[in-house]
């Protein structure tokens, strides 16, 4: 692959090719690890995302814990890339993504932020869809927010180009469990 766009297309095709029943089982397993992490760290304010295409499905965790505060992203601006955050109800927004109908926070008021991606490397760098929304957010988040890259194990530990504006996450979460990457995280 010569360009990031080609690599993204390859990674998306690769993820789309994972069997749907396996993705569903892996998502349930990942949600169990997420619930354990939240209980251990007493996290009840979580920044999450609704699944898009073949992404990890966090809905089982959201449904299992209605007393927790789940914040979801909404595209507030594409130039510059900026997300706003709110709770349910969700409605279709940019690119068919489910987004909160009302999003009042430019920095999510969370203890834990779950970050989607097409791939993650050993250092927590991610390759997303190329619009820069999460890199812009990660650059502004308070240090005490635990940032966790979320994906299937097949998306983890892959080589990728890293640029100066790319911000790593502190941990990775897959169906195999949580891996802390940053000391003290």
UniProtKB/TrEMBL annotation:
Its EC number is 6.3.3.2. GO terms for biological process: folic acid-containing compound biosynthetic process; tetrahydrofolate interconversion. GO terms for molecular function: 5-formyltetrahydrofolate cyclo-ligase activity; ATP binding; metal ion binding. InterPro entries: FTHF_cligase (IPR002698), FTHF_cligase-like_sf (IPR024185), NagB/RpiA_transferase-like (IPR037171). The lineage of its organism: Bacteria, Pseudomonadati, Acidobacteriota, Holophagae, Holophagales. This is 5-formyltetrahydrofolate cyclo-ligase. Keywords: ATP-binding, Ligase, Magnesium, Metal-binding, Nucleotide-binding. Belongs to the 5-formyltetrahydrofolate cyclo-ligase family. ATP binds at residues 4-8, 126-134. Substrate binds at residue 55. It catalyses: (6S)-5-formyl-5,6,7,8-tetrahydrofolate + ATP = (6R)-5,10-methenyltetrahydrofolate + ADP + phosphate. Its cofactor is Mg(2+).
């Amino acid at each position: 692959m010569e360009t990031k766009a080609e690599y993204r297309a390859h990674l998306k095709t690769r993820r789309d090719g994972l069997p749907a029943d396996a993705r569903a089982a892996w998502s349930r397993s990942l949600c169990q690890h997420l619930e354990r992490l939240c209980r251990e760290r007493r996290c009840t304010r979580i920044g999450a995302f609704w699944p898009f295409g073949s992404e990890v499905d966090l809905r089982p965790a959201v449904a299992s814990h209605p007393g927790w505060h789940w914040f979801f992203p909404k595209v507030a601006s594409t130039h510059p890339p900026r997300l706003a955050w709110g709770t349910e109800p969700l409605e279709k927004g940019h690119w068919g993504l489910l987004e909160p109908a009302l999003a009042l926070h430019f920095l999510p008021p969370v203890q834990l932020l779950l970050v989607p991606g097409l791939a993650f490397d050993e250092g927590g760098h991610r390759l997303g869809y190329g619009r820069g929304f999460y890199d812009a957010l990660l650059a502004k988040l308070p240090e005490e927010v635990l940032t966790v890259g979320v994906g299937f194990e097949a998306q983890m530990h892959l080589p990728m180009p890293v640029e100066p504006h790319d911000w790593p996450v502190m941990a990775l979460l897959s169906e195999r469990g949580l891996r802390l990457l940053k000391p003290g995280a």
